[in-house]
């Protein structure tokens, strides 16, 4: 853990400083976690909901964090799990498959006033949506957030070699999707 994370964690684990520490944690990680979540759930409103759920879960469970990984890895893991759970809940509620829910999210992305991408971004998002879930996660974390394989490994609890292979396959599939007519 970095010195900054260690200081923040010590605040979070002291009852009289927990609220102050939590405000710092939100300030430090809110934007990065939002975009991580947004790349998974696609919708701005859903991303806001999942981000809020993520921070609630972090607040309730910060005492259980042992410091065996970096704090941001733990936060990203919670955000990832909350995002995937959210997508599964949507699919279950609508009685559709996860793939159908993902496709619906992509269709709504085109009319999302918070989406600032152009037609190429939409096509890239559609290409990413064709990937298996793990490849989507790895690609999003590597391509959009520029995380290192060691960081992704901590977040997804997978070996770096497997992540490199997943990313390589994802890139090849995306290239094939983007160049087909």
From TrEMBL:
Record PANTHER family: RNA POLYMERASE ECF-TYPE SIGMA FACTO, RNA POLYMERASE SIGMA FACTOR
Family under the similarity heading: Belongs to the sigma-70 factor family. ECF subfamily.
InterPro entries per the UniProt record, alphabetical: RNA_pol_sigma-70-like (IPR039425), RNA_pol_sigma-70_dom (IPR014284), RNA_pol_sigma70_ECF_CS (IPR000838), RNA_pol_sigma70_r2 (IPR007627), RNA_pol_sigma70_r4_t2 (IPR013249), RNA_pol_sigma_r2 (IPR013325), RNA_pol_sigma_r3/r4-like (IPR013324), WH-like_DNA-bd_sf (IPR036388)
Keyword Protein transport (UniProt): no
Protein name: RNA polymerase sigma factor
Record-annotated RNA polymerase sigma-70 region domain positions: 25-89
Alphabetical UniProt keywords: DNA-binding, Sigma factor, Transcription, Transcription regulation
RNA polymerase sigma factor 70 region 4 type domain boundaries: 123-174
The organism's place on the tree of life at top rank: Bacteria
Transmembrane segments: none
Pfam families: Sigma70_r2 (PF04542), Sigma70_r4_2 (PF08281)
Keyword hit for ATP-binding: no
